[in-house]
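User: Hi! Is it possible to get a structure for several chains at once, not just one? Here's what I have:
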Amino acid sequence: MRMLRTAMAGWLGVYAVVYVGFLYLPVLLLPIFSVNDSAVPVFPLKGLTTKWYDSLAGNDVMLSAAWNSLVVGCASAVLATVLGICAARAITRYRFTGQRPMSALIMAPLVLPEIIIAVSLLLVMLQLGLGLSLVTVVLGHVLICLPYAMTVLISGFEGFDNAYEEASLDLGETAFGTLRRVTLPMMAPAIISSLLVSFTISLDEFMVAFFLSGSDPTLPIYIWGQLRFASRLPAILALGTLMLAASLVLLTVAEILRRRAARRTDADGGLIA
Amino acid sequence: MPETPRSSGETMIDIANVTRRFGPITALDTVSAKIREGEFFSLLGPSGCGKTTLLRLLAGFDQPTEGTIAIGGQAMADIPANRRPTNMVFQSYAIFPHMNVAENVAYGLKRLRLGGGEEKRRVEEALGQVQLGHLGKRRANELSGGQRQRVALARALVMRPKVLLLDEPLSALDKKLREQMQVELRHLQKAVGITFILVTHDQYEALAMSDRIAVMFDGRIAQIAAPKDIYQRPVSRQVADFLGGMNFIAADIVGEDGSEVCLETVGFGRVTTERPPGFVVKGRSATLGIRPERLRVLWDDDTSEHEIAGTVVDRHYFGEITHLIVEIPGLQQPLSVIETNDFGADDIPVGSPIRLAYDPEALVAMGD
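Assistant: Yes, the chains can be modeled jointly so their relative placement is included. Here is the combined structure:
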């Protein structure tokens, strides 16, 4: 029995390693081939080079796509976070009819197939006579980002004691002054974290952007277009590596801020005597 | 300590027929009270009795369903919390965690835009009043519970309110600190001279600190009186029970004469006592009460004008006092007696006969 258990434990370890390897090895190939001095991404590696990265700097089409992504990312992050603050506050603070269905509907895009969302958004935009542009991409990205923003913001607002706002009112401050001087500063870590998560998601999003971007491609659309040309693959790998690094940095910062916020509310409620 | 009139007697808060309903639940049921200027007034009751609801109505965080509240002669119906002459010390203290102690205290003053260093001077004065003068730069999450409580006090007092509202401010502190803060709060209230309204479920806290106490049950005020009166002359069994131990003796009403009632009991015979306010003769029965510490053990040949004889059936030792349970022939329930241990009450054997002395003044008639 005991031997069986030991053998099982060994196999479980192997399974875990294979599993993680399968998930992440392909991602590791990205930076490896991006510095390989060959137009074809195959082993063995030929030599170290930064020429693929250098070629990105002079690529105006790529730079304009990157700029589009940046604009869309910032706009989506701000909009999703503002809407998320309102919704998260309503859901954590008040009891109202339709509260549970409403919060379920806000979270639904998490599980809906993105292609369905993208196609239906496209139909609606065309019906409304809205020309496809970065604006329509932003609208679509807000929908995609909102559930993630909500998750971060709800956990922030749940740790927020009503008494802080009452104390502020009690000390003579107006409702708006209370929002500015107490609620927003105390929520700042959750808000920043929501902005970063939303931005990251918007930056990497392909499906909605593909259907709604019209003639202004975002970075993922540009990359997809370039994949038709085998010779440009190494440059795309270099670009992908940069995007991967940026995403990792942003998400790490977001997580650190979220934990700091959690610790602050803990220290506040738990330190008695 | 001689009794000194601490309040000027002018009405500061007038609560008139206030009712607050939350859906089907009536949290406050036609409550009326007048609280005087400079008074230390406590709202005492078990959880769910409506005391916190009443405090929140005074602060303006909530509105009465019916009835009116006036503070300093001004009706409060249309005045929001941020324009009321009240400030609150919250149960959780609600110290803003993103500010240091001095910034917390200065929070309400910022809006007043005081010039010429007045803000700084008032913050320092308030921190001095609560003995935190040296901690201005300390961050909120670096404070102990007692220090947080002082910051909350200073933050409210610095606004110079007409009324300070305290929502169970001592409940989060340990016993020793709580007792120390009771004394300090009382001194502080005398020093600043403003009206304090304290919400508490701790009867000792209310008795030790208040000028007057309102005892509340089920959304109603059962009695408003000075601590000594409320302890010695509770108007009902419920009030008596909430404020410490009380022996209840079934009694028949045999006579009434204006301010007095005459009761007939088995153990204590015929007793004429003060008729409590609001006492209604329902049928012919009432309850006579006596506090356990007002029954005194008679040793050896001691005699008393008023005594009662029985048998010790149980004994509990509590260090400085002993709790004796004494069965009296004819009484349905045994009497509990609290005796100090200086004469050896802790050595009285269970089962021995005993005689108890009492002062008829200590007997109180209560409605059932």
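The interface with chain A takes residues 59-61, 80-83, 86-88, 90-92, 94-98, 107-108, 111-112, 140-141, 143-146, 155-156, 159, 172-174, 177 of chain B (CB under 8 Å). Residues 175-192 of chain B form the longest helix (18 residues).

User: Great, thank you!
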